[in-house]
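batch job 7 of whatever, protein = Holo-ACP synthase
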Amino acid sequence: MARIEQAWLRHPDRFPRKILGLEELRVFNARSLRDRSRGVRYLATRFAAKEAFSKAVGLGMRSPMWWTRMQTLNAPGGRPVVVLAEPLASWYAERFGVAHVSLTDESEYGAAYVVVESRGNPDISVSSLLD
């Protein structure tokens, strides 16, 4: 949390816009206006989710993956869901099935776990995904 808060303090407008998609940015702004610590927790968990997703699909932060192209939003019941923008959405759809995301935050840490389903092709192995 401290590392994300420091980045936000150094670049109060630029840092959230670089990391968050448009829908995430709206939620972040509303939460951080009510309570700064809620804003920090939101920003930290979304940052963690983007890192976890980029690693799960084997891209890291290189094209077509980019911070704002992957959002973690809440379904009507509150469950976090992955929402992708182009060109990442098309790239992802060709290779994978549903992406599941879980977020948690504590006083010092924000964490995210992402599990990506295969498209049901038994010929896909971890080594072939890395090629």
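notes: The first helix runs from residue 2 to 10.
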